[in-house]
Amino acid sequence: MTGREDGTDQRGGTAYPAGVAEVFAEVEARVRAAVGVRLFTVLAWLPGRRVLHRAHTSHPEQYPVGGEKSVEVAAGWLERCVHGQRPYLGADRAAVREIFSDHELIDALGCGAVINVPVVDDGRTLGVLNILDAEGRYDDAAVTRAAQLAALAVPALRAVVARRDRPAAENPTQSGGPW
């Protein structure tokens, strides 16, 4: 991290408003304590661009901050998590393979189960917490615990979405600018 004169933090080549990275780190720590996690990411939903933007990661080499995924994910996942605002539980490797195109990397990290929890603010989906661990590690009780923590990410995701969900012509980060 590099503190900057403009009040932002630099993480993984992406500038964040001051405090955002710390909020995500706290959410990760709470999820780790309450649910358990090997791989943790926070994705911001940018509906204007129809992409998921990686705003936080526990594994920056494999999943760098700033990476983006188009919405072409497994059938039903986007509808369930983003539009329907309901968590997804994939309790085994087969479920992980069904959802993630990068399932081989996920498996190599020792992960074979996933919980995806939408982060919702005043009826609007801001993003998703992606919580992964060993196969069989998660059940419905773990999903409930994770969902109870999602609201902690609201202020940070609100800031990320506000700064990033603009057409490329209006967003300096889409053309190499600071955000």
TrEMBL record:
SUPFAM superfamilies attached to this UniProt entry: GAF domain-like
A Pfam family annotated for this UniProt entry: GAF_2
Residue span(s) of domain GAF: 61-157
Alphabetical list of InterPro entries matching this protein: GAF, GAF-like_dom_sf
The name this protein goes by in its record: GAF domain-containing protein
Species this protein is from: Goodfellowiella coeruleoviolacea
